[in-house]
Amino acid sequence: MGLKPMNCPAHVQLYKDEPRSYRDLPVRYAEQGLVHRHEPSGTLHGLLRVRSITQDDGHIFCTAEQIEDEVLRCLDFGFHLYSLFGFEPRVELSTRPENRLGTDEIWDHAEGALAQALERRGLHTASARGGTFYGPKIDLHMTDSIGRGWQLGTVQLDYLMPERFELEYTGADNAEHRPR
Length: 180
Description:
Blueprint: H1 8-16, E1 27-36, E2 52-61, H2 67-84, E3 90-95, H3 104-121, E4 125-129, E5 137-143, E6 149-156, H4 160-164, E7 169-170, E8 176-177
Helix pairs in contact: 2-3
């Protein structure tokens, strides 16, 4: 038995459970998982930052060529769900923070892939430095009835997790590649 702060390691283990081919990708996992966090003092915020939460989380393992379509599927799903409640989210592309992992080349590719997906969908976005330390993200935001801004869902692009956990798939060239 153990307490987990995130769902990522379980999804990595599921992916690694069997050899993968480019024909298998994308592989999509989603979970309503119970996570536990003891965040630093001052970061708890009402019911949004409690010590134990059920977190909806998903991971998609895909080829570099599939990134844009997968990002758009995630955004379309988010916009659809929020529209059911009358929300009209706005998007923000969060790029590399000062303290980050990975090379500039990886960050350039990841940020470019997210920006290209937003451009393809015609979504006008604000950009801000403030992605997570492991990758850029697209945040969906809304404003409540009294003018406060709230972050809703997030679509993140993580090139480092497949590298650090040595995730692989066999490509059409019969060589091993990293999923994205």
